[in-house]
Amino acid sequence: MFSSPARTPRRSVRPRESTLPRGSASVFSDAPSLPAARGATPSVRSRLAVAPARRGSPASSAGETVRTVRERVEEERVSWSRDERHAVYALGDLPVEVQGLVKGADFIVQSVEGQIDLASGFALVSSPTVCAAWSFAKRTHSPTVYAFPPPVPTRTPHNSSPPPLASFFAGPNAGAGEPGLVLVSATGEIRFWESMSLALANVERYQVLEVPLGEDFVERLWKADASTFIITTTASSAFRLTIAPSGGRVVPTLHPLTRPGGMFGRASSVIFNGRDDRAGVSAVAQTTGGVYILAKRTLQKWALMPDGTAKLLQEFDLLESIGTSLFDDESAWQSGGISLELNDLVSVGPDRLAALVSYARYEHDRRTQNSHAVVLFENHTRANTVMISNIVHLSYVAHPDPRLLDLPRLYIPGGSTTAFIRFADAIVLASLSDTPYEDAIPLKDAVHNAFISIGSTSASTKQPSIVAMPATGGLLGIEVHAGAQNQALSAQAEATARLKSKMEQAVFFGDRSDNPLTFDLPPGFQGDLAAAAEAVSAEIVASSSPYMPPIFETRPQLMDRLARMKELMTFIHRNGALSLLSQSSRRRLSRDAEKVKAATDLWDYQNRLMDKLHTHSPGSLLADAIESLMVGKGIEDEDVVRGFFRTQVHNLDALLARVYALFQERARQGQDSTAWVLEANRIFITVLRTASQFREDEIATYQIDRLHPVDEPWTAADAIVDALDALFTATDRLVRDRTRALGSVIDEAPTAADAETRQAQVDQVGLKRQMTELAAALCSNMEDKLRAGAERQMDGGADPNDGLSLAERWAQLKPRVIRPLVDIDRVPEAYELAEHHSDFPTLVYLCHHPAAGTGPVQIQTYIERFGEEFAFVLYQWYIDNGHIHALLSQDEVYGALLTSFFASHAYPHLAWMHHLACGRYGDAAQALAGVEATTGELEGKHLVASLGKLAAVAETKKSDAPKAKSLLQHLDNELDLISVQDTLRDSIVARASAAGGGADAVVAAHAAGLAEKPAFTELLADCVGRLIAGDALGIEDLVDVLTLKDNAGDAELDYARALERLSMDSQLPEGRRQVALLSIWRRVFIRDDWAAITSTKGRSEEAQRDMQRQTAAYITLRAISENEDFPPNYILSPFTATQPPLAAELAARFPARPAAAIARLLDDHAREIATLDALVERGLDGWVREIGALAKADMEGDVEMA
User: What is the pLDDT of residue 262?
Assistant: First the structure.
């Protein structure tokens, strides 16, 4: 099908003298041009004089200082990362000399190349000046390093000289387990050593070939099989290098790859026709009997002939084939808006290949970031077609890297269904099976570190799938666990599982400073961060994580778990992910760490008691509670105590509840409960104090909003708070009982000569100290509980009644647990608790307690520190306890506080004095008006109203504000009202003296119109009796006194006085005001004998008018007409006055009277109304109109006469 190319004559092979001095050793340690790591002093075989330090635990951290350190054998594998899908472990550091070589490379100006050969177990690093190889399979501390002189290019494609291309050769004459070496310079010089041992014996014994390049440069060296290599150039030319035995020695031969061209079928070294394909070969992949060569877009298949030549078998446009299949929308590829590159090609079976591609889209004249995919396809040679079987798109996004690194590259170990893609700072694992899976193994220091080489197995072996060589960090073995598949999960669940795995790697492996890998989250990571973090935390608490290191001792194991939990939070902070955690999630993470920390201290306490325990003794309370808890959960363990601390720390709150239950049960069995109380208190205090302290110390770590918590801390659960409350009460009662039983000596310092008494004193001191700590724990957790409840209530997730009950309990609890501390000589602690929890009533109590008070200075300090919160409680205490002088004699600097107090608290009888002292006359007048309204005695009302008026007058002189004038008017009206009552009282008292009796006598003598109205008689007697006693009457009572009595002579104006007082009142409800107004006019209209008045027979007009002028209607109308301010709507007609009152209105006036009394009042009102109705039917409305007209005319006439 294709013309065979002309055979190229075999090129001669000539020995070449080494550039090294003859006889010089070629081991790395003695080569003058090879840099060594600082401080290294290698021996003649490059073994360091001092063995390197042993590696630590695969997951060592801060906890490594407390865990048991085991002697590690040299072969022990150190894991850098491990999960159910893959493992990364150390295969040893680079030799010291090689480290120095790599350290000097920046991969931009000075670069190095690396090669790893898993078949022989050798690796190498080549630089422009030296090529260093060593056996990494031999796990020794200082491996032998073989140094080879590289060919020097005669010209360079860049400003700097590139390192030679290198590859290992495994030929039939290679030394036992030692491969040979091929080095190729950029200008085509090939050097070949049959065995590594030549570097030690005679390094100048190498064979040389020259690649005919012209102006071209060698670009890459590809290994087709153990003894065949393909050399490609920057112009996409290719040469076959074959190393085979000849004449008793191994000889390299070189043949160019040619294809027939031109009309005569002449062979040409230009193997690619397309211009795009002549910019270098992207990949060479081995296949049965030949190789595939991939250019920029074209893939060729070549057969490797036995004579060392190669024959072109097939050629097709792979770029187009992949481009049309890679995208769901084929038009996207056809539009030309996509840039597609073929990066690498590997063989996965006979004519089955996998290509690594990268692509980017052009959107709005901008190129998006590269995406990558692995494309699996089959080549059907006879049909000259390509069948794409699978496309695996990678979610990993590689950042542009300016370094001269041969990447990205694809590796698929023999028989594996996992692809490994090497980027500059990461290796990506991607599943090629039906179960999707992708993970990345990134390097920690991406700026300075990079993967310089990767080796993969060609068949299923016991070796790692991949061996990677980063610039720093040593060789890495990477294994994929076959068959490890996650259960069928949703996309979100799968993402969360990967996120959890990443966190586990960071927590258990990322804390080592020598781990070359990083576990930081990539930008835009998917999954539920909170769920993943909480799952990792829960497994650490329960010691159920498969990555937990085996630590036998309990305390180191607890400390290691705590270190893991701190590392988890460090990871979250380092990735800026704390903001993605809700307050509830942060609270749960903190809870887990608090429990582990508290369990550590509790174990320390229990460990000290271990050798002294006796069953069912107070000292065994914790152990017995643990055993009871474990049995209740069905957990069997030979050592239940240690078993709890290893696996059940998450049940620490349940353990406390079990401790309290056992305490209650056993404390009741004995006479003296001191030991039981002490022991139960120790357990609770140890746990809660440690948890609280950890919470405070790590507040910046978890950043929980303690003022507005979404959830209460675990230590504020009902069971724990109730147990604390009960223990405090029991301890308080026990301290008092012991004092009563043993006397005051028990409360003295433990210095008694008698051992029994001294022990009792020690116990008493301990009980008092525990009381203080219980009070602190109880207050702290109760306050946290209250805050969480308030927050839930604000969010609508709690019953408001529960919040009220909790607030009430909190208000009662604070003084109940803080004030008793004074009685046990813990005054500073009482002050501290009251201050910390804002218990201002208790602070006031302490300041005035004989044993705890420290004088006015302390009070002033609190006023300045807490302001109104403390001052208002203090002022209320002054009022409640009668310390009025202390209240009103406050330093003037606190005057504003006292003013605010009086503004929000109704104490006008005190406030007016403060306002006067401060020169606020308006406020004083307002306060006095309030005092006057509540004062019951006439004399007192007169005095208060007079003072108020003086203050109001003083205010009007300072300010012409309407409010001041209105207040002055109000006080004037009140003084007029008081004056009316004073005058009325004097008249009544005089009548009482004349009648020789009290109120009943006055009513009997001067209320003849009430003879048939018993309820009115009783009402009037009551009001008169109060007036005689000096009490002030309300406006309704005053109206009844002025209108129910017999009004003759000067008293005839009392009806008008009642109307005027009623019109000036502003406090009476409108309904009751109407009842009083109707009552006044009704009594005005029924006082007179209208039959006699309207009988005009034998009476002159003048006499008739004189008679009308004697009526109550005339006198009242005339009096109110002379008052220009009297409201006209207060003047009623007789018909209107017949409206009856409602029972509800009378009941509102007399709330204390029974319904029968209200009914009697209604009956008397009905009698009045019946009398008035009869008069209205006879024409009273007309008569009253005439009287009104007469009063008006008389008033106008008096004005004219004046």
Answer: 59
pLDDT score for 106? 82
Task: Phi first, then psi: give them for residue 285, nearest 5 degrees.
Answer: -120, 140
Indicate the SS3 state at residue 238: strand
| R_g (Cα) of the chain, nearest Å | 53
Cα separation, 408 vs 282, in Å, equals 11
890-909 tens-digit pLDDT: 888 888 999 999 999 999 99
Residue type, 430: A
Give ∠ CA 176-178-179 in degrees, rounded to 5: 125
DSSP H helical ranges for 438-528: 491-508
Per cent of the chain over pLDDT 70 is 90
Distance, CA of 698 to CA of 353 (rounded, Å): 55
Q: Residue 463 and residue 477: Cα distance in Å, rounded?
A: 9
Q: Which of 946, 954, 953, 979 is nearest to 968 (CA)?
A: 953
Axis-axis angle for helices 1101-1109, 1112-1121 (nearest 10): 70
Q: Backbone phi, then psi, for 586, in 5-degree steps?
A: -60, -40
Strand pairing class (180-184; 189-193): antiparallel
Question: Please, which pLDDT band fits residue 460 given cuts at 50, 70 and 90?
Answer: low
Helix 938-958 and helix 908-917, axial crossing angle in degrees, nearest 10: 40
Tokens of 1193: 């005319």
Q: Which amino acid is at 358?
A: S
Helix (H) / strand (E) containing 852: none
Question: Do 97 and 145 touch, CB atoms closer than 8 A?
Answer: yes
**Model confidence band, residue 797 (pLDDT cutoffs 50, 70, 90):** low
pLDDT in tens, 702-750: 999 988 888 999 999 999 999 999 999 999 999 999 999 888 888 888 8
Is there a contact between 713 and 781 (Cβ–Cβ < 8 Å)?
A: yes
Q: Is 798 a residue whose pLDDT tops 70?
A: no
What residue ranges in 395-450 does DSSP mark as E strands? 409-411, 418-422, 426-431, 438-442
Q: CA-CA distance, 898 to 877, in Å (whole number)? A: 13
Distance CA 1089, CA 210 (A): 153
Q: Which tokens sit at 155?
A: 């010209």
- 229's enclosing H/E stretch is strand 228-233
Q: What is the pLDDT of residue 462?
A: 62
**Cis? peptide before 408, omega within 30° of 0:** yes
* 271 within 8 A of 237, measured Cβ to Cβ: yes
H helices present in 795-906, as ranges: 800-818, 820-823, 827-836, 840-847, 856-866, 868-880, 884-888, 895-904
β-bridge partners, 380? 385
Give CA angle at 292 (286, 296), nearest 5°: 130
Half-sphere exposure of 1069 (CA within 13 A, CB side): 7
Distance between CA atoms of 606 and 642, rounded to whole angstroms? 10
**818: Cα separation from own chain's centroid:** 32
On whether the CB atoms of residues 642 and 603 are closer than 8 A, the answer is no
Residues with Cβ within 8 Å of residue 147, at least 6 apart in sequence: 26, 27, 28, 31, 34, 130, 131, 132, 199, 203
Task: Kindly indicate the confidence band of residue 328, based on its pLDDT and cuts at 50, 70 and 90.
Answer: confident
Amino acid residing at 902? F
b or e along 863-877 (b: 16 or more beta carbons within 10 Å of the residue's beta carbon)?
A: beebeeebbbbbbbb
Assigned token pair, 84: 């159910």
Q: What is the DSSP string of 72-95?
A: --TTPPPEEEE-SSEEEEE--PPP
For the chain, what percentages of helix, strand and coil (3-state, to nearest 5) are there? Answer: 50, 15, 35
Handedness of CA 398, 400, 403, 406 (dihedral sign): positive
Give bridge partners of residue 242 from the DSSP assignment: 228, 253
pLDDT band, very low/low/confident/very high, at 8 (cuts 50, 70, 90): very low
Which amino acid type is present at position 333?
Answer: W
This prediction has a pTM of 0.76
